[in-house]
Specification:
Blueprint: E1 4-8, H1 15-26, E2 29-32, H2 33-42, H3 46-55, H4 63-74, E3 83-86, H5 92-104, E4 111-116, H6 119-127, E5 129-132, E6 138-140, E7 159-160, H7 167-181, H8 183-190, E8 194-198, H9 203-215
Parallel strand pairs: 1-3, 1-4, 2-3, 4-8
Antiparallel strand pairs: 5-6, 5-7
Helix pairs in contact: 1-9, 2-3, 4-5
Bound molecules: adenosine-5'-diphosphate and zinc ion (ZN).
């Protein structure tokens, strides 16, 4: 089984949704840098105050901040079971730092799963996305409606729209993806670690295909 996993793909490709399914199925730790930053913003910590300046407009948080955060998280004992890195690495500097860190702590990456998705569908997904404020479960106003408007099916928490899920910030996020993150596909392909899946398959089929691949 592959247990130290990177999830890659543009914003809206479904990394977070897939990570939540895989974490339960495979008993892995889910490490989402986006969620960590959003938690820090909500808690108004120093990290949150710093991250907020970048995130809301769709920019990337500086590498040294993000790398330090991930290094600390990956070193925790629970990651021994295996981990899903969701939203990290996003730049070449982050990918190089991750190689060094994972070697140091003997938790080397087994695979980088890439989710392919076309541009039009990304825009549709992000612009209709709603997220549970309480548990982070994702919804869509047309294609993944909650049973009751504005309320999470899982925990009853309120649904909200992320500040960076608007047209302007999304444009910036997609530009960062193309210029800084997309080159990492080549980085992992060269190392023989890249495995691509079609995100248009739909949530359940995508989960089935990725989880059977990871179990091999
Ligand atoms: P998405 O994949 O939908 O863009 P995330 O929740 O993964 O959303 O990330 C939200 C925001 O958090 C990013 O736009 C960026 O500002 C910040 N962020 C998350 N991960 C990183 C990272 N590895 N490096 C820099 N910034 C990050
Ligand atoms: Zn919820």
């Amino acid at each position: 089984m592959k247990k130290n996993i990177i999830l890659m793909g543009p914003p809206g490709a479904g990394k977070g949704t897939l990570a939540k399914q895989l974490k339960d199925e495979l008993h892995l730790v889910h490490i989402s840098t986006g969620d960590m930053f959003r938690d820090a913003i909500q808690a108004q910590t120093e990290l949150g105050k710093l991250a907020q300046k970048y995130i809301n407009d769709g920019h990337l948080v500086p590498d040294e901040v993000t790398i330090g955060l991930v290094k600390e998280r990956l070193s925790q004992p629970d990651c021994e079971a295996g981990f899903l890195l969701d939203g990290f690495p996003r730049t070449t500097a982050q990918a190089e730092a991750l190689e060094k860190i994972s070697r140091e702590i003997s938790r080397e990456i087994d695979v980088a799963i890439n989710l392919d998705c076309d541009h039009q569908e990304l825009v549709r997904r992000i612009s209709g996305r709603r997220v549970c404020k309480n548990c982070g479960a994702p919804y869509h106003i047309e294609s993944m409606k909650p049973k009751q408007d504005g309320v999470c099916d899982l925990c009853g928490g309120p649904l909200y729209q992320r500040k960076d899920d608007n047209e302007e910030a999304l444009k910036v996020r997609l530009e960062h993806y193309d210029s800084e993150t997309k080159p990492l596909l080549e980085f992992y392909s060269k190392r023989g670690l890249l495995e691509s899946f079609n995100s248009l398959l739909g949530k359940e089929q995508l989960f089935d295909e990725v989880s059977s691949f990871l179990k091999k």
